[in-house]
Structures are given as C-alpha cells and as structure tokens.
Write a structure and sequence with these properties.
Number of domains of chain A: 1
Number of strands of chain A: 6
Oligomer: homodimer
Order of helices and strands of chain A: HHEEHEEEEHH
Largest interface: A-B, 22 and 22 residues
Low-confidence stretches of chain A: none
Shape of chain A: globular
Mean pLDDT of chain A: 92
Helix content of chain A: 25-40%
Distance between the termini of chain A: 24 Å
CATH topology of chain A: Maf protein
Largest sheet of chain A: 6 strands, antiparallel
Radius of gyration of chain A: 17 Å
Strand content of chain A: 15-25%
C-alpha cells in the first residue's frame, strides 16, 4: 500500500489480514489533475510502480454533489481544507437535490500492468451530525445516519473504500484473471 | 508557446512580435496537483521540454480569494466550470473581506533548465458587470472597473499574464542572466 497516510495503510492492512501481508510504503506520488478518480489512481500506481517495483495498490477518493455538477469531485480534500462543511452547505442553500456520493478508486499495479477497482457510496447532504470520522462525514447521510454517527469499524465495512477493496479482494481470490 | 488554447498562443505571439518569433505547439501537458502555480508551470515546462526539445514557455493561472483561504487557487478553471460566478458570490455572502487576486506563472524551459516568472493582479469581488473577457472577469474589479468592462486589448496590457510576460521579456532582453 503506497500512501503518505498511515491510518489508511493500517485500515487496508487489517482488511487483508490472513489473506495477504500488506506492507506500508510511505511515498508521496505526484497527482495528475483529472476529473476521474480512476485515472488519477492509475497514474499514481504507474508512478509508484516505477519507484517501488513490487506489486502495490494506491487509492484516490472523490466526493461528488449532484446539484453542483459533481463538485468538489477529486478535489474533495483541497476544497474541504478551504471551504469546510460550512462552505458546502452555503453552496447548497436553495438547492432541492441534496444527493451526493463518494467514489474511491483503488489501482493495483504489478509487472503485468495496472487494474482499477471502484467503490461508490450514495447518500444525502444534511446539517452536520455526529462526532466520528473526518472531512465531509458529518454532513453525509447514509441510510438515516451521517457517516460521523457510524462507528469507524462499521464505516470501514460499508464505505466506498470497503466496496473498492471488496472488488480487489474478489479479483485476487479468483487468481487475478486477465479478463 | 505550448498550450492547447490557441487564443492564449495568439496573445503571446503578438506580445513578442518583432522581438522573438513565437510558434504555437498544441500539446496537452499532464498537470500535477499543487497549491503553487509556479510549481505547476515548472512541472508542465519540464514535461513539455522532454517532448518538444526546443526553448518553450507554458503558463498556469490561479484565482485566489482571501476570505476563502485562497480558494479556488490553481483549480480556478475547474471551479468556474462547476460553480460559476453565482457559486463564488454565494460563498462570499456575509464575508467582509472581498479582496482577491489573479496570479499567472510562466515557465521558460531550454536545455539549461527552467525559470519561472510571476505576475499578480489584485482586486475586489463585486456583483457581475460587463461583457468582455471570460471566467471570473465580470466579478473581479480592478481600479473601479471589472475585467469584463475593460477592452481585451487594454486587459492584455495590464493583466497578471502581462506582468509575467513583462518579467520574462526583461530577462530575455538582458541576455538571460543565470542569476
């Protein structure tokens, strides 16, 4: 797992426990600008493999608000840092469509190439509730609860990242078929 | 001039007329994500020079709003496409500090390396006025007029891009000193 975020590395290590030994490689990958998280993850994986030269995964996550044409999209982290949830809710004033989704792309790279797995979690924007999680979690409601009201252990079972990891895991368990 | 924007190429060609023949190379450079336009331009120039292998310039522009911690910064084009000036003014509701600036970085690359030139234009956010220009021009007031109220020929003399070009030009006229 190539990331500069050790929490993320730990989450993924525990996900694959007993199946694959996951090692954390702390490497800052240059991120290309692209509207599609799959392409961003693919580019990061390509760069990381050129450095690490071992089978690896990287990930990238977008947060997309339908009424704002998908904003902030792949710039979720930057926008959160600048505007916070207050800014997002201000932009949503008067908007009727409150739907939004998270999307994670996980790219797996080895010497045979790169494969990208996606996971999506759809929900609704609400006034902030809850104290768990981070970022947009308090304003993102999924099945009646905000992500900040869902314990981290449950969130890491149902989240967009969990879905992408499940797709990766299924593929690995199937012997990494080419098609 | 390496850009996929032919208007920009034309503007820069006319700026250097009689001094240097500027050729337009239409090449889509991968853009790294970075908070600093200078670094974005430097990376683009490095990539472009590896492809074109002739002395070249590239540019990148940010739009920074002080009350929003510099948002949208280097993501100005993406954010304009998603939120428009309406979204920016919504975010600014209730904010007292209306100051903002444009910043252009122009990177010049040749076989001896890369040099970056900056140009800044500071102004104030206002309700939209004027029909010239594009993007944030109607809501950006500079010395009593919005950029959309200033004829394009005058704008291209006083703008952030013009300042960066002037710095580049001065350096070229001085024989490209190393320090």
């Amino acid at each position: 797992m190539v990331t500069s975020n050790s929490h993320k590395a730990e989450e993924i290590r525990s996900y694959f426990e007993g199946l694959i030994d996951v090692e954390h490689v702390c490497l800052e990958c240059p991120e290309y600008r692209h509207d599609d998280v799959g392409e961003i993850a693919r580019n990061k994986a390509s760069y990381a493999f050129s450095q690490v030269k071992k089978p690896l995964i990287v990930d990238d996550t977008a947060f997309c608000i339908d009424a704002l044409s998908g904003f902030p999209g792949p710039y979720a982290a930057y926008v959160f840092q600048k505007l916070g949830n207050k800014g997002i809710l201000k932009l949503m004033e008067g908007e009727e469509n409150k739907s939004a989704h998270f999307e994670t792309a996980i790219a797996y790279a080895d010497s045979s190439g790169i494969r990208v797995f996606h996971g999506i979690m759809s929900g609704t924007l609400v006034e902030p509730r809850g104290r768990e999680g981070f970022g947009y979690d308090p304003i993102f409601e999924y099945q009646g609860k905000t992500l900040a009201e869902i314990p981290i252990i449950e969130k890491s079972r149902i989240s967009h990242r969990a879905m992408a990891l499940a797709n990766l895991r299924t593929w690995i368990m199937a012997g990494r078929p080419v098609n």
